[in-house]
Amino acid sequence: GGRLNLYEKAVDSAAPERELLATPDNKIPSALSPDGKWLLFTQSTSRGFDVYMLSRGPGTREVKPLVNAPASPEGQAVVSPDGKWVAYTSAESGRIQVYLRSFPDGGTQRKAGEQLGAEPRWSRKGELFLRGNYATGRTSLFSVSLGKDGAMGKPADEPDTPLTVVVNWKAPID
Q: Which residues, at least 6 apart from 115, have a Cβ–Cβ distance to it below 8 Å?
């Protein structure tokens, strides 16, 4: 098989896709920053999986590493709605957990709690959700509130209110 590279294509156009990045390593896109300036992707390397950022400005295709801890796979990166944080998974502690990193500078890093976790997702209001705690033998949904300064509240384990899943809903949900 061929390599997984990054392309873009307008959904409302018959124009062919446009190559964004082609390298010998496989790449999996994971998120676009709210301002559209950065595409986050996971790239397989000789060391494992790392998270990179690809600039999307006119005439530039700068690639920068965002998370590349030695001997630790990272991935599933998603950008917060305000564009200030990235949540991602990493095994740098020896077990897969969700971390936060300031964005786009990547300078500040925080663990999103002590529970094991994966598949981070942001609500429109900036609350972080993750699936995890495999140590108990069951999958749980956790939520973590994030203050404006990046301070995290204690993860809410097994919320008191039930989670309602809506399928095939046609009206907007706020």
A: 97, 132, 133, 135, 140, 142, 155, 157
